[in-house]
TrEMBL record:
<keyword id="KW-0472">Membrane</keyword>
<dbReference type="InterPro" id="IPR006124">
    <property type="entry name" value="Metalloenzyme"/>
</dbReference>
<dbReference type="InterPro" id="IPR017850">
    <property type="entry name" value="Alkaline_phosphatase_core_sf"/>
</dbReference>
<keyword id="KW-1133">Transmembrane helix</keyword>
<dbReference type="GO" id="GO:0046872">
    <property type="term" value="F:metal ion binding"/>
</dbReference>
<feature type="transmembrane region" description="Helical">
    <location>
        <begin position="454"/>
        <end position="474"/>
    </location>
</feature>
<dbReference type="Pfam" id="PF01676">
    <property type="entry name" value="Metalloenzyme"/>
</dbReference>
<dbReference type="GO" id="GO:0003824">
    <property type="term" value="F:catalytic activity"/>
</dbReference>
<keyword id="KW-0812">Transmembrane</keyword>
<feature type="domain" description="Metalloenzyme">
    <location>
        <begin position="45"/>
        <end position="351"/>
    </location>
</feature>
<protein>
    <submittedName>
        <fullName>Phosphoglycerate mutase</fullName>
    </submittedName>
</protein>
């Protein structure tokens, strides 16, 4: 069949119109981002979870004791103290409970009672939050690899046996079809690491402390290679890498305090390349743990979760070290909970959103704050301070304002375009905040998210436009 020029031109106009409408219609998922000041946010983050690492064993300001009350000789460290001198250091981060993967789940959700199931709920984890902000999520996990945690990540390399003697590394890839590059390259790299894992372990003498060192190095090497690929091939998006190393926990359980201390000293060396790579690529580095480890005395094996050990300070107090380009060196002596790690981490990334079940309290370590304004419809917004406009925006229902000075009074004014309803409030901003504007309708369902409503409306509208356009094209072709 031969089409006339007029028919081809009509089809072309319709296609251009559809493209224009799909681009310009705002379903409220695309927020307006406004920089009100300097931020220097990191371009990504590596979260290193060291299973079984108690805070006192590496924090130079703390002592560690055995259960019998004797003072334990601390590991000799040369590199971690240098990191301490550049990072935000927390002296007291307390684990709420010790059961299964509880420590990992609390870190990822900000909820004290989190279990594996909660991690898998919609918008319940920090993975859900960062992915909404365009992050790629990658995991290299020797432990903490529950089915839910694996499913939350775009790509995971994890040990299905949790064995330092017979590791079986498996790769799990997200079903999200929107993600392509650079996942194939990362997958290929992870396949190489998985195929070599067992032989690398077996090349170290069985029953020696070196095998524990090698097991930790498996995960750290894979993490380093993934960073290198992402920096070369995937620099158009930020990324969130979770690394879990488990040999220290096993060493404490089976090799006593001597083996535990030796593993920490080895980690002090292994962490240097990761630290340097993060510095070179403007990445944040966060070091923490699921729980610590206690020992009856310097000659005995340790434990954590049984009644004999669970209440010990060496078990309940875990490290939290945050090294990021937007945070100055500081020591935080106040006590926080492990559930506070999630909001603190997200704040460091300049993200004001929090997981759905987050109970943790944020401590803003940045020199600035973030304000998120959400409205049920297209809204005009103005933020001012001392009578001077700081920033303004229009034709959107969601605004992210970064770089705001802390401890300063601001006035927020908004007008909803469709109804003309106004909102005005005076804000004092210390931590990152989310302001949700609601219409003055008593019948409005307060449990319904304006963001989700606008997504639905926008999606339906785009679908109707596409269907109409296709119908017109079909008619032209038939004629």
């Amino acid at each position: 069949m031969i089409y006339s020029r007029r028919q081809i031109w009509q089809v072309g106009k319709i296609l251009l119109l559809l493209l224009f409408l799909c681009i310009t219609i705002n379903p409220a998922g695309c927020a307006t981002f406004i920089e009100a000041g300097d931020t220097n946010n990191p371009d990504g983050v590596v979260v290193l979870i060291v299973d079984g690492l108690g805070n006192g064993y590496i924090n130079p300001e703390l002592d560690v004791k055995a259960i019998d009350g004797s003072i334990l000789k601390k590991p000799v460290l040369s590199n971690l103290p240098k990191i301490y001198n550049q990072a935000a250091i927390f002296d007291s981060v307390y684990v709420p409970k010790l059961k299964g993967n509880s420590g990992h789940n609390v870190i990822m959700t900000g909820n004290r009672d989190a279990d594996d199931t909660m991690v898998g709920y919609d918008n319940a984890s920090i993975y859900d939050v960062v992915k909404k902000h365009g992050y790629l999520t990658v995991g290299v996990l020797e432990r903490g690899d529950s089915e839910e945690v694996v499913a939350e990540n775009d790509l995971v390399l994890h040990d299905t046996t949790n064995s330092i003697n017979e590791p079986v590394m498996q790769i799990s890839t997200s079903e999200n079809k929107d993600i392509d590059h650079p996942l194939p390259l990362l997958t290929t790299e992870f396949e190489t690491h998985a195929s070599r894992a067992l032989s690398r372990v077996e090349n170290t003498p069985s029953g020696t402390i070196q095998r524990y060192y090698t097991y930790n190095k498996l995960a750290l090497d894979a993490a380093m290679d993934s960073i290198n690929i992402l920096e070369k091939e995937g620099r158009d998006r930020k990324y969130f890498i979770t690394v879990n190393i488990a040999a220290l926990d096993t060493a404490g359980l089976y090799r006593g305090y001597e083996g535990y201390s030796q593993c920490i000293e080895n980690l002090d060396s292994l962490i240097v390349p990761l630290y340097e790579t993060c510095q070179e690529n403007n990445l944040a580095l966060v070091i923490t743990s699921d729980h610590g480890m206690a020992f009856p005395d310097a000659e005995s094996r340790g434990g954590a979760k049984s009644e004999k050990y669970a209440s010990a300070n060496e078990v309940r107090n875990v490290p939290l070290i945050i090294l990021s380009p937007n945070i100055k060196q500081q020591r935080i002596q106040e006590t926080i909970g492990q559930e506070d790690v999630a909001p603190i981490l997200l704040s460091t990334l300049g993200i004001a959103d929090r997981p759905a079940f987050c109970e943790g309290k944020e401590k803003n370590l940045k020199e600035y704050a973030v304000l998120k304004v959400v409205s049920p419809g297209i809204t005009s917004m103005k933020l001012s301070s001392s009578g001077k406009e700081v920033c303004s925006g229009s034709n959107d229902s969601m605004y992210y304002i970064t770089g705001l000075e802390k401890n300063k009074q601001y006035t927020l004014e908004t007008v909803i375009d469709s109804s003309g309803e106004t909102y005005k409030d005076t804000l004092s901003i210390e931590n990152d905040r989310v302001i949700e504007i609601k219409e003055k309708d008593e019948n409005q369902d307060s449990t319904t998210s304006p963001e989700n409503n606008m997504h639905l409306v926008g999606g339906i509208l785009i679908g109707v436009i596409n269907l109409t356009g296709l119908t017109m094209i079909f008619r032209i072709m038939r004629n």
